[in-house]
Amino acid sequence: MSGLILIVDDLSINRTILRAKLQAACYDCLMADCGEQALLLAQDENPDLILLDYRLPDIDGIDICQRLRGNPATRDIPILLFSATADRQQRLTALRMGADDFLSKPLDESYLMGRIRSLLRTQDHRARHAMPVAMPAVTGMAEGAAAFTLQSRMMVICNGGAACDGFCNDLRGVMPEMTCTCLSLQQALRLDTGTAMPDLFLVSADVILQKGLQVIPDLLSRNQTRQAELCIILPEGQELLGAMALDLGAREVLHLPLDAEEANLRLAKILQQKQQRDALQQAFETQLDQAVRDPLTGLFNRRYLCAQMARIAADMQTGALSDCAVLVIDLDHFKSVNDRFGHNAGDDVLTEVARRLRAALRSSDILVRYGGEEFVVVMPGADVRAARRVAQRICRTVHSRGYDVRGSDAALQLSVSIGVAAEHAGFAGCGDFAKTIVGRADDALRAAKAGGRNRVVSGQNAAA
Q1: Catalytic residue (one of 229, 239, 252, 373)
Q2: More confident: 288 or 267
Q3: Count of alpha carbons within 13 angstroms of residue 423, beta-carbon side
Q4: Which domain covers residue 257, as residue numbers?
């Protein structure tokens, strides 16, 4: 795994030893011997991770953490703070100020490398799912990072019994704001998509000692549970096992006896990062959906139509789909609505027409606003006779009731003209399928217009 790591330590020998270990693992390294230099390098070089000594000649590590987290350019860089003393208060303060972990010297090499790999993996995942630089302003998500207050769910995986009950009660005390339930490993592995999935699985030490670290890939390999964060609890002194757990995909390792305040800080940070990631993912999915939607009517747009027609063409070429029909629909004399009542009234009419079109179609049909007052319906599996029946139903639905229009006391009457075309499996020219079939339906639409409007014409020019 490649990555740029900034080493901050005032002792040259310490920097040299760490650099040698990291370069042997194929990491690139930057080095700083004081806090001010570290802050400048973090700003200018944007390293993937910072290894930071607590004691520096100018600024202590806590202050550096705070300043890095307060700078939008550096606030998401993982920080591993280390100290020659194992002071609990130092550790808690470091975690509160934004350090991702606090390690005591001499550093356990296996655990250090496991933690580095875990943090870099998480950072890479975050970067790949982050929106482009210009996207936050477009989506209204340009505000600074803030604490998330969503209700979180935690599931504790344990072996059951009185000891487990006491252990679960202790964990509920660690994070009282969370919904916490206890279950066995077998129950966790059998969770289905109908179950409200937790944000966090916490695996007790007795499960790890009995089942081994295989628990981690078992949980992370299932679609139902892989989206949850995973924390394991180990007996004291099991740093090597903790390093292996991090490499297998655990986000955090806690050691017995649990320090409630420290556990709360560590788990709260994991949950906050998960909620931020989930929010970005939801925003990204919304943007993808909007990219293929017409903003006025909510219907799919032409981009979506092209993608679906390519898929249908491939299915017809292989014989997976026997027929496909296309309707091209145009509102009759729609320009007069805009000219008489204005474009706002025209938008209202288009929105209501879209609603009526949806109601007249089958669930498998694809309805698209093609442009202006023109719509396209793709009907997988339909032949020309089935398509004509649906087209005639659309004509009746659109024309059956008037439309309320701004600026008019009387309901406006509208009609549509529809062109129909259909193809069977095994057609020639698969690559031009969309262009060919939509073109034929469009030719039929022009014939319907020329024939007096408010009618259906198929590709064979047989008027309805």
Answers
A1: 373
A2: 267
A3: 28
A4: 147-289
